[in-house]
Amino acid sequence: MRHRVGLIWFQNDLRVDDHRVLSQAASECDQLICWFPVNPQWFIPNRYGMRSIGPARWLFLQESLRQLDLALRQRGNRLLITYEPPLQALAELISRGHVDVVYRSRNAGYYENQYWQLAQQRYPYLTFIEDDTHTLFDQAQLPFQLKQLPESFSKFRRLVERPDLRVAIRPPLDAPKQLPTAPLRASDWRYYDGKPMAPLLPVEQPVVQGGCEAALSHVSTYFRHRHASTYKETRNALDDWTSSTKFSPWLANGSLSVRRLNQRLHTYEREHGANDSTYWIYFELLWREYFQWYAHTHKQHLYRFQGIKAQRPTTSFYGGRLQKWCQGNTPYPIVNACMKQLNATGYMSNRGRQLVASCFVHELQLDWRYGAAYFEQQLVDYDVGANWGNWQYLAGVGADPRGHRQFDLAKQTRQYDPDGSFIERWDGAVNDGPLDHIDAADWPIKD
Predict the structure, then answer these.
(1) Gyration radius of the chain's alpha carbons
(2) Helix (H, G, I), strand (E, B), or coil: what is residue 37?
(3) H-assigned helices in 125-230
(4) CA–CA separation, 16 vs 384, rounded Å?
(5) Which residues of 32-55 are buried (b: 16+ CB within 10 A; e: fewer)?
(6) Is 316 exposed, middle or buried (0-12, 13-18, 19+ CB in 10 A)?
(7) How far is it, in rounded angstroms, from Cα 184 to Cα 65?
(8) How far apart are the first and last CA of the chain?
(9) Spatial CB neighbours of 137, under 8 Å, sequence gap ≥ 6
(10) Is it the case that residue 445 has pLDDT exceeding 80?
(11) How many other C-beta atoms can be found within 10 angstroms of the C-beta atom of residue 363?
């Protein structure tokens, strides 16, 4: 079907490579608006006293948007970035641009889907089109209905790991060579100029550069140095760049296609041989995949205190404990070091995330949602399904069939930081007093 003016609503798909929605829009539209809305609400403290986006992810996002804009310009278009409530900006774009079709990549976020559904209700005369670009499988390829999503990852993996399904993963598309021009000139709209939009603290030690070019460069370097062949043995390291893949920041905001990554992994296995380590990379892509569909399935229950379970946890809210955990000033040096690493860089290893989350809900007895909200604010690789789903998992209110599991922090320290170098580097041994000395009235109250 031919459309006069299309609008593509970028969210978690900040690339031109393997972007099926962008390719479809380019083939169907005479003119095309490429739009990314920056929501001012992201920078305002939420119900947990946190911001939806903190300094590290904001820097990473801006770099990603700049690279996306450059890629679009090379193909005859450009990225329009607005800084106002999304539906307000959308209304003006539809009116001034005479839009007749709106495209987007399917999104696992509950609030992002609320915006999309409201837009469809307000503009019933427009065509709305979405496709799966953020997952390995299309929703239609899953061997079950979403409402029948398995209650554990193990059951999910057994269903989707069939050889015929892995072969059926859609091959990645090359980026379109040319895009339709935009109907709006730069002078017709208040283009965002790349300057900071919100007063955020600088990032002390950013660990990755945002953007689709940086993503593909990192993938190439990672596989060229054959780190994939030893990944399973090194993946639990707390503080080493080459020990884990570090693909997650680019996967999270869609600068990197998970299908492109899967193809590159296949190529590596053909050229250098498959082993337990290369399989484990695919295993963890399936883990990510599970929590994408988990978020689609459970929607607003992703943020519920009792999670997807019927029983509420016995944890509560303690303002002093929460603040000390956030600052890395608890009685647990390994936890402190991980939190200080997170605050300085926007990064924490997967092993570290499990340890600090276990401490949060067990030793500190805190409401898990505040920990998830702090991760959302701080992590450069924040992904709604992976973050909130994994916090539910560790808190015993999600997809963990074993329930409320707890890590022995002393044992974990001996195993993963035996010489204390990680704790020393991040000054984890510092602790200046009891946990509960801060007035909880300074912090939001749990509902």
Answers:
(1) 22
(2) strand
(3) 153-160, 163-168, 212-224
(4) 22
(5) bbbbbbbbeebbeeeebbbbbbbb
(6) exposed
(7) 19
(8) 49
(9) 160, 165, 168, 169, 289
(10) no
(11) 18
**Most confidently predicted of 187-191, 350-354, 429-433:** 350-354
pTM above 0.85, yes or no: yes
DSSP 8-state secondary structure symbol assigned to residue 81: E
The CA–CA distances, whole Å, from 230 to 92, 218, 260, 419 equal 52, 17, 21, 22
Angle at 79 between CA 105 and CA 204, to 5 degrees: 90
pLDDT at 202: 63
Tokens 């780190």 map to which residue? 227
Mean pLDDT, the chain, rounded, equals 91
Ordered DSSP codes for 384-410? HHHHHHHHHHHHTSSS-TT-S----HH
Let me know: does 126 contact 33? Beta carbons within 8 Å: no
Tokens of 241: 């760049």
Nearest CA among 8, 21, 7 for reference residue 257: 21
How far is residue 390's CA from residue 399's CA, in Å, rounded to a whole number? 8
- Please answer whether residues 432 and 336 qualify as being in contact, where contact means their C-beta atoms are separated by less than 8 angstroms: no
Contact 318, 366 (CB under 8 A): yes
Relative to beta strand 79-83, strand 3-9 is unpaired
Strand order across the 29-38 sheet = 79-83, 29-38, 3-9, 101-105, 127-131
pLDDT tens per residue, range 190-208: 555 555 555 455 666 777 8
Tokens of 112: 């992002």
The 3-state DSSP class for residue 68 equals: helix
Task: Name which of 298, 435, 444 is nearest 374 in CA terms.
Answer: 444
- Angle, CA 384 vertex, CA 253 and CA 170 arms, to 5°: 55
Residues 20-33 pLDDT 10s: 999 999 999 999 99
Distance (Å, rounded) from C-alpha 292 to C-alpha 298? Answer: 10
Beta-bridged to residue 3, according to DSSP, are: 29
Nearest 10 degrees: CA dihedral of 125, 34, 247, 147?
A: 0
| Structure tokens, 306 | 């009792």
Q: Which two tokens stand for residue 53?
A: 């986006």
DSSP conformational letter for 100? -
CB contact at 8 A, 348 and 422: no
DSSP element (H, E) containing 67: helix 55-73
- Residue 325 burial by CB count (10 A; 0-12/13-18/19+): exposed, middle or buried? buried
Task: Give yes or no for residue 115 having a pLDDT over 80.
Answer: yes
